[in-house]
TrEMBL record:
Natural source organism: Thiohalocapsa halophila
Domain Putative restriction endonuclease: 12-175
PANTHER family: SLL0198 PROTEIN-RELATED (PTHR34107), SLL1222 PROTEIN (PTHR34107:SF4)
Name recorded for this polypeptide: Putative restriction endonuclease domain-containing protein
InterPro entries recorded: Nuclease_put_TT1808 (IPR012296), Restrct_endonuc-II-like (IPR011335), Uma2 (IPR008538)
Length: 190
């Protein structure tokens, strides 16, 4: 019986294809971005722009398609990830090997298992404090916080209201814009 060989970050980096990530030792193709997914990702990044523009240790780096080297066999590319500038004063040029302070995945049809099971377990092992899941088709955001080593749901929100959501509770977020693409709570856009 032949032993299973897990792919490594070196294997991932040697591939000419940029649309790959390393999950549980398997090099996998990232799903094609659908319009609702892309809109939710871009709108979330834009809505959190104030934190990203903020200088000094109180600011954040908020990055889309952030490849994070957690372990030798784990290098996912997160839809959005954020680091407090107090922990990561400057961005590296290559892969980031420091776990983020916040991760947000936009759940893609057919990839729910990765976003709701595999990624949260990886983030828990690396003590990432906050994890958001955005379900664009349902216009829903579920925020998780790491408590006693496990993620606990701290908010389940939809597009009909604004909210202060950790770790960005300093500012009320326009969930109508993030989740439905229309500024202002109560948006009825499909």
């Amino acid at each position: 019986m032949e032993a299973l060989k897990l792919a490594t970050i070196d294997d991932l980096l040697s591939s000419p294809d940029e649309d790959l990530e390393l999950i549980n030792g398997d090099i996998v193709r990232r799903p094609m971005t659908r319009p609702l997914h892309g809109r939710a990702q871009g709108n979330t990044r834009e809505e959190l722009g104030w934190f990203n523009r903020r200088g000094g240790p109180d600011g954040w780096w908020i990055i889309t398609e952030a490849s994070v080297a957690y372990e030798r066999n784990e290098c996912p590319s997160h839809d959005l990830a954020g680091w407090r500038k107090s922990r990561l004063p400057t961005l590296p040029e290559g892969l980031i090997d420091l776990p983020p302070d916040w991760v947000c995945e936009i759940v893609s049809p057919g990839h729910e298992r990765k976003d709701t099971q595999q990624i949260p377990l990886l983030l828990q092992r690396h003590q990432v404090p906050f994890y958001w899941l955005i379900w664009p088709e349902e216009r829903k955001l579920v925020a998780h916080e790491l408590q006693a080593g496990s993620f606990r749901v701290i908010a389940t929100l939809d597009h009909r209201r604004n909210a202060r959501v950790p770790p960005f509770e300093e500012m009320e977020l326009d969930l109508g814009y993030i989740l439905a693409g229309a500024p202002g709570a109560g948006s009825s856009e499909p």
